[in-house]
Amino acid sequence: MTVERRSSGRPRDPRIESAALEAARAALLDEGWTGLSMAGVAARAGTTKPALYRRWPSLPHLVYEAAFPDEVALEFHLDSGDLRTDIAGIARGIRDLLTSPVPAAALPGLLAEFSTQPELHASLLARFADGFAMLDERLNRAAADGEARKDVTAEDLLRLAIGATLLGVLLGPETLDDAWVERLAETLWRGIAA
Amino acid sequence: MTVERRSSGRPRDPRIESAALEAARAALLDEGWTGLSMAGVAARAGTTKPALYRRWPSLPHLVYEAAFPDEVALEFHLDSGDLRTDIAGIARGIRDLLTSPVPAAALPGLLAEFSTQPELHASLLARFADGFAMLDERLNRAAADGEARKDVTAEDLLRLAIGATLLGVLLGPETLDDAWVERLAETLWRGIAA
DNA sequence: CGCCATACGTTACGGTTGGTATCGGAATAG
DNA sequence: CTATTCCGATACCAACCGTAACGTATGGCG
Question: Which residue in A1, A66, A164, B15 has the fewest CB atoms around it within 10 Å?
Fold first, then answer.
């Protein structure tokens, strides 16, 4: 997401980047998406708009990187040996990721940007790529063991889990408690079982 | 959504309301959510901003009513006698509603507004209320007949179907073809079966 | 018929934002 | 020492939102 780095010249102050991301997270938490502005984030970070525009092409890009930094990946634990348990783990991981305060605050606005900024959209999808591949492999194993239908794809299953969770985040995250996760996992597991 | 109507004084020109809604739909289609503006819609409708602000409190309210007019309700056909068929009908109805061009263009932006405009959010939910009640009754019947688990709620099932469809709309409506609807229905049906 | 309330179009305003430009000065590579 | 790029500061433009005037039109009600 960061703009390409030139070789010569005065190097960028690395503290500005982290300060801006942290400022964006803080602003997101106590002003919400609508209260965000480039000038506001810059002031919070102790710098100025031009410095931010040198690093991110627009406010949504900055917010995206602040809310979904590279380190935040969706880590599945698909080694319990029990398909039902693994699916519950997936559902819980998605719920935990999407309902944590900063992503939950950023998501509604970011989703609106995705329709006009394909790069952001692609970037977030890539964040799920690892989990996607792991789940795909897990489903193949389950199909081979006769635990799951052969025509169930990781894409379809993930879309169900992510979509249901996303809708919950948009309409009221308080309903996404552990009992909901368990009900979701139960339905998904039964839904894909052979 | 329309502002309360006074009794005396010059009556509102009813043509402005319909012209504005139609203009909003047209603007939505060929400029997208980000290209919308109150002045643009007013110009397209052959009127002016103050006339629009007399009718809707903000642009999102106008767009919401344009994209999801009162007449557009989610009609389920839950009388096929076969639970599997009924669920497929639900999935198809949701897909058809959310992927039609105007709602698909309006949804990303509207979703972002929902987080700060609870009334819009509540209004859209009410649009699903009828279908929700019908499905609830249908699930009770299925549970009584031993076709469905007793602990499956209409809310959970609808959230899965709507969420998966919504995610598809946000990420690329072209994947939501009839085959996808069938796969979704199959998984949901198996997921809730007793 | 006349009054009053409200609508209408037109125009303009204040405030906010996004994003760019310009400037002198500072830091680094070669 | 020079070229290059960054820095903060400030200014700037265009667009937009929402509101406020105006003078005028149009209806209900007494």
Answer: B15
| Nearest alpha-carbon partner for A128 in B156, B171, B163, B109 | B171
The pTM is what?
0.91
Q: How far apart are CA B164 and CA B151, in angstroms?
A: 21
Alpha carbons B135 and B122: distance in angstroms, whole number: 19
pLDDT value at B159 more than 80: yes
Rounded alpha-carbon distances, angstroms, from residue A119 to A1, A57, A64, A114, A124: 9, 12, 11, 8, 9
Partner A contacted by B126 (CB < 8 A): no
- Judge if the beta carbon of B34 is closer than 7 A to nucleic acid strand D: no
User: CA dihedral in degrees (B148, B150, B153, B158; nearest 10)?
Assistant: -10
On whether any CB of chain B is under 8 Å from the CB of A111, the answer is: yes
**Cα nearest neighbour of A188 on chain B:** B191
Contacts of B107 by beta carbon, 8 Å cutoff, 6+ apart: B67, B98, B166, B169, B170
* pLDDT tier for residue B3 given thresholds of 50, 70 and 90: very low
Tokens of B88: 């497929």
User: What residue type is assigned to position B39 of the chain?
Assistant: A
A135: its two tokens: 């789940």
Residues of chain A with pLDDT under 70: 1-7
Task: Give the span between the Cα atoms of B103 and B92, in whole angstroms.
Answer: 15
User: CA nearest A139: which of A186, A77, A87, A74?
Assistant: A87
For residues B72 and B81, the answer to whether their CB atoms sit within 8 Å is no
d(CA B131, CA B91) in angstroms, rounded, equals 12
What is the end-to-end Cα distance of chain B in Å, rounded? Answer: 42
Q: φ, ψ for residue A134 (rounded to 5)?
A: -60, -45
